[in-house]
Amino acid sequence: MNLDLQNKKVLITGSTAGIGKEIAREFVKEGAQVFINGRQENRVRKTLEELTKYGKVNGIVADLSTSEGIKEIVNKVNSFGPIDILINNSAICTSHNFFDINPNSLKETFELNVFSMFYLTQAILPSMMEANYGRIINISSEAAFKPYPKLLPYSMSKAAVVNFTKGIAELVSGYNITANSILPGPTLTTELDNYFVRKSVVESRKYEDIKSEVLKKNNPTSVIQRFVEMDEIAGIVLYLAL
Ligand SMILES: NC(=O)c1ccc[n+]([C@@H]2O[C@H](COP(=O)([O-])OP(=O)(O)OC[C@H]3O[C@@H](n4cnc5c(N)ncnc54)[C@H](OP(=O)(O)O)[C@@H]3O)[C@@H](O)[C@H]2O)c1
How far, in Å, is the centroid of ligand 1 from the Cα of 102? Predict the structure, then answer.
């Protein structure tokens, strides 16, 4: 497909695994200049090795839950010129018993899932406004509107992502800049898929049975009655980047 993204600079946070890596792969294949990110240097290196065969990709090791990490990533991407497309994808999702949630676990979730998106957007938006061009795509979750009791900090943070995105869309009204959020349901990431494969071997049960059992238990009201595929999300991101 030629989506005319060849000259675009794209930053995808948390893109050395899962959905972020799949999004990165699609942009690299489209000929965009892609910046991937994660905290662990070895995962950044491995992802670079995997994606460079498709096109232009750079890696930035930075922990975005810290202000130093935000500064680091902004300085590195800005040294290549202004970013056209920002995809705030990195997040943590930790399961807690509500009565065990302490200020630290709440803080940790909000630092990465909300504050990093806020500060990164605050740092990158001025150059988009100056260029009168930009696409901001924030990965939320269906948990934003369907909070899971065991994932309350995560669900609250994802509601904040939707709220923030709408606010940014209003802020840039009149510019050729769009801000959108995507709210996926449970997604079949490579990590989850590997877990199902391992479980099916250990328990000598069918992979498909385990997968549908987990979905029914954790998401009994799923409308699509299956896990979302990572490339479905990547496709929506590409569409919103046009
Ligand atoms: N998976 C799902 O079912 C699902 C459903 C709905 C929405 N979502 C959303 O989709 C997005 C991606 O989820 P995923 O499941 O694909 O994630 P994932 O597989 O856990 O991957 C997370 C990525 O973020 C990086 N990361 C983690 N902490 C970071 C930090 N402090 N600073 C920078 N990078 C960091 C990880 O690399 P390092 O560990 O090396 O840092 C990794 O590259 C998230 O926003 C999530 O909320 C996921």
Answer: 22
Name the least confident of 20-29, 40-49, 200-209, 218-227: 218-227
Cα(229) to ligand 1 centroid in Å equals 15
pLDDT > 80? residue 1:
no
Query: What is the spatial distance between Cα 24 and Cα 139, in angstroms, rounded to a whole number?
Result: 13
Q: Which of 161, 169, 181, 165 is nearest to 113 (CA)?
A: 161
Type and span of the H or E element at 74: helix 67-78
Average pLDDT over residues 10-26: 98
Residue 89: CB atoms within 10 A of its CB come to: 25
Q: Which residues are catalytic?
A: 154
What is the atom index within ligand 1 of the atom nearest the CA of 90? 24
Residue nearest to atom 22 of ligand 1 (CA): 14
- Provide the β-strand partners of residue 57: 34
Query: DSSP state, 35?
Result: E
Residue with tokens 């990164």: 120
Distance from residue 174's CA to the centre of ligand 1 (Å): 32
Instruction: From the CA of 19, give the closest atom in ligand 1.
Output: 16
Residue among 65, 90, 141 whose CB has most ligand 1 atoms within 8 A, to mutate: 90
Tell me the domains of the chain and their CATH numbers.
9-186+229-241 (3.40.50.720), 188-226 (no CATH)
What's the distance, CA 162 to chain centroid?
13
**How many C-alpha atoms does 81 have within 13 Å on its Cβ side?**
9
Express each pLDDT in 73-118 by its tens digit: 999 999 999 999 999 999 999 999 999 999 999 999 999 999 999 9
